[in-house]
Design a protein that fits this description.
By secondary structure, this protein is an all-alpha fold. The protein has two domains: 21-140, Tetratricopeptide repeat domain (Serine Threonine Protein Phosphatase 5, Tetratricopeptide repeat, Alpha Horseshoe), CATH 1.25.40; 150-254, Serine Threonine Protein Phosphatase 5, Tetratricopeptide repeat, CATH 1.25.40. The protein is 79% helix and 0% strand. The protein has helices spanning 2-33, 39-55, 60-77, 84-104, 109-126, 135-149, 152-167, 170-175, 180-193, 198-210, 214-226, 236-253. It is globular and about 55 Å long.
């Protein structure tokens, strides 16, 4: 009897430590996530989130946080400061986190969303023709996002396909009958969902420039630099990043 009680207490104590470890790791990850304007903080947050995810194989939220952060780190913040191979490895972490969710919830729209973004980023880093980009996977993922939460992350699935069109080389784009006009239409759908997420407007401006419509591009860039980045507090860090990019691009155009 005494041994049984001691065993039970030991089990309870182990579970208690397990929970504390997980919560502590998430808390530390969140602390660095809040300071995600610096790449070293992003890498620390990724490390904490990844360790936390190993402790709770069924936890969805920690994996979504991880996948969002890997895309931000390797796809945006690290674009000019990290080497290609490091970015690819970070994208792989995000893809893996999403696939762990989808193994249990195959229709989860948010896992599909961040999976296609991380896969797309990985493909761009590897090279369009070397990365093995799968339109089938992207389309399937898009369908699940559209049926689950089309407006997720400020109309992000519209922005995703607009950027795919932007990145595809000319001849391949013609094969699929994509045009920059299609990209512009998609960006405007995202702006209907949220007009103040600056990534959308910056990328819209870049598509306008590709179409030789400089005045329209400048209009979008001027909107970004004249609007407070805190207009969307939850993505103020991202908005400041895109605002600085818009400012630099605007200086080149004037």
């Amino acid at each position: 009897m005494k041994k049984a009680v001691l065993f039970s207490l030991g089990v309870l104590f182990s579970f208690s430590l397990f929970g504390q470890d997980f919560e502590l790791l998430v808390k530390k990850g969140d602390e660095y996530f809040q300071k995600r304007d610096q790449i070293e903080n992003c890498l620390k947050a990724i490390d904490f989130y990844e360790k936390a995810s190993r402790l709770k194989p069924d936890d969805i939220e920690i994996r979504l946080k991880l996948a969002r952060l890997t895309h931000w780190t390797a796809g945006e913040l690290g674009l000019e400061t990290m080497d290609k191979n490091q970015r690819i490895e970070i994208f792989k972490i995000g893809v893996k986190a999403c696939e762990e969710i989808l193994a249990k919830e195959p229709r989860n729209p948010y896992a599909h969303f961040w999976r296609v973004w991380n896969l797309g980023g990985k493909t761009v880093a590897e090279g369009i023709f070397r990365g093995g980009y799968s339109f089938k996977e992207a389309i399937v993922g898009t369908l699940f996002v559209s049926s689950g939460d089309l407006n997720y992350f400020y109309g992000g699935i519209y922005r995703y396909w607009a950027r795919v069109i932007y990145e595809i080389p000319g001849l391949l784009g013609k094969f699929f009958h994509f045009t920059q006009e299609d990209a512009v239409w998609l960006y405007h759908q995202a702006l209907k969902v949220e007009p103040n997420f600056f990534m959308t407007r910056l990328w819209l401006a870049e598509s306008y420039l590709k179409m030789k419509q400089k005045d329209k591009a400048i209009k979008e860039l001027e909107y970004i630099v004249s609007t407070s980045s805190d207009i969307l507090p939850e993505v103020a860090v991202e908005n400041r990043f895109y605002q600085e990019q818009a400012r630099r691009l605007l200086e080149k155009l004037r």
